[in-house]
Amino acid sequence: MDFGRVVIVTGAAVAAFAVAGCGGSDAPEAATVGVVSAPVSSAPAPTTSAPTATTTTVTATPTTTAAATTTYKRNEAVYFTAPTGGFQCGIIELATRVEAGCQGPTAPIPPRPDNCMIAWGTGIRVTTAGPAEFLCAGGVVYTSGEDDPVLPVGQSVASFGFTCTSTHAGARCKNDETGHGFEIGPESNETF
Question: Cα separation of 172 and 190, whole Å?
Fold first, then answer.
């Protein structure tokens, strides 16, 4: 009997990260994907009715609007890589807030605050409450978990009331309502 292999996807993963904001709250745990392998016979199918397995593939496709705004959405979240500096950026909704941010090496970095016990200064974010701030995070926050597409210099993405633009220096993100935001590059940064 000739056996093949079928892979059945039993769940979907959503990018959730262990993020601890400086003075922030607990973040949700990451979701998991279960994969089951089962042998499949090449013999004729039995005449009795049996449940069948299906595999669904969902692909996020970049789109361009009339205003030349490129979006790279995964549900409502947006993820991209800035070509200058290789910053990983995103506009995401967490359990306690919505934020836009970018991670990657930048300088100068302000002194670590006393309430940050994990990685400090690995990027900058702006939330719905107040000016932008440097990250206090235990891992990569702004990624879909896949190879996030490069956003060409001069192009913007928008979601949840935030807009991020890829710049010659790196990236710029802002809260559209408050005007607070940041610019980040390998050798410079600014919060406002």
Answer: 9
**Residue owning tokens 């702006």:** 126
Residue 86, Cβ neighbours under 10 Å: how many?
A: 13
In sequence order, the 6+-apart residues with CB closer than 8 A to the CB of 162 are 91, 98, 99, 100, 126, 173, 174, 175, 176
Name, in order, each residue with C-beta under 8 angstroms of 188's C-beta and a sequence gap of 6 or more.
106, 107, 169
Judge contact between 118 and 105, C-beta under 8 A. Answer: no
- Tokens 């406002």 found at: 192
Strand pairing partners for 6? 38
pLDDT tens-digit profile of 37-60?
Answer: 333 334 444 444 444 443 333 333
